Amino acid sequence: MQTTNQRLLDISGGINFRELGGYPTVDGRTVKWQRAIRTASLARLTDDDQQTLINYGVKVDVNFRSNTEITKEPDRVPTGVRYQHLPVFEEDQTDNSKTQAEIQAELKEKAENGFQHMLDTYHDMITTEKSHEAYQQFFQTLLTTENDVVLFHCTAGKDRTGMGAVFFLNALGVAQPTIRQDYLLTNQVAAGLLHRRLESAKAEGVSGQLLDSIKALWRVSDAYYENAMTAIRDDYGDMHGFLTKALDLSDQDITDLQTLYLTKA
């Protein structure tokens, strides 16, 4: 399997830009390179970053963020790239677009911790109609894009984007341990940003349970992933049931996705 560095795109004005190509499927095929990339925000792309994405073949920008997030920091969409706004939530339930002060005020007001908040967020990504609609349209975009690169993202590229990648790789038939590994890879590639945020919080006097809550909001976790999988099993039986019932994919759609995004065996 390819190294992490082979997956990362050289983007200076963003984090967590990475390839989904190269992953093997259980039937011996491989996800094609330069067909789908998962990323964080495009709001701070430099001109060189935009050209990098154009040169890479990106033709579609799927934005999972809410209207509020986009108003604050709109995408810098490269020239010639088709933009598609598919909000998973009405507002940013992941809290990754919020300032430290906003997060602290929210946690205090709701009397909840960040870990439980994220568990609830992942449950909502599986169960809410708004989320279903966003991912349904995401798959329709994937199904109608031939040869070009589809880029999909949220703010941190870890939760809404992470689960988008989970659904996509499942539809392609990638093995479960590999899918989970890709999901958790965010903690490695964004470790520097998390460290800086936590050091900033400590410098402002944040400690104890509040610091743990902030850390929980800015990371991905096996527990979050498993909470989503549990919701899928409870409501749909298995991932195939979720893809076909909640996300409206037919068996033919899944076959077509595999034809478009996998190498031949």
TrEMBL record:
Q: Which GO terms describe its molecular function?
A: phosphoprotein phosphatase activity
- Output the Gene3D superfamilies linked to this UniProt entry: Protein tyrosine phosphatase superfamily
Q: Which SUPFAM superfamilies match?
A: (Phosphotyrosine protein) phosphatases II
InterPro entries under this entry?
A: Prot-tyrosine_phosphatase-like, Tyr/Ser_Pase_IphP-type, Tyr_Pase_AS
Name the Pfam families for this protein. Answer: Y_phosphatase3
Q: What is this protein called?
A: Protein tyrosine phosphatase
Q: Native species of this protein?
A: Secundilactobacillus collinoides (Lactobacillus collinoides)
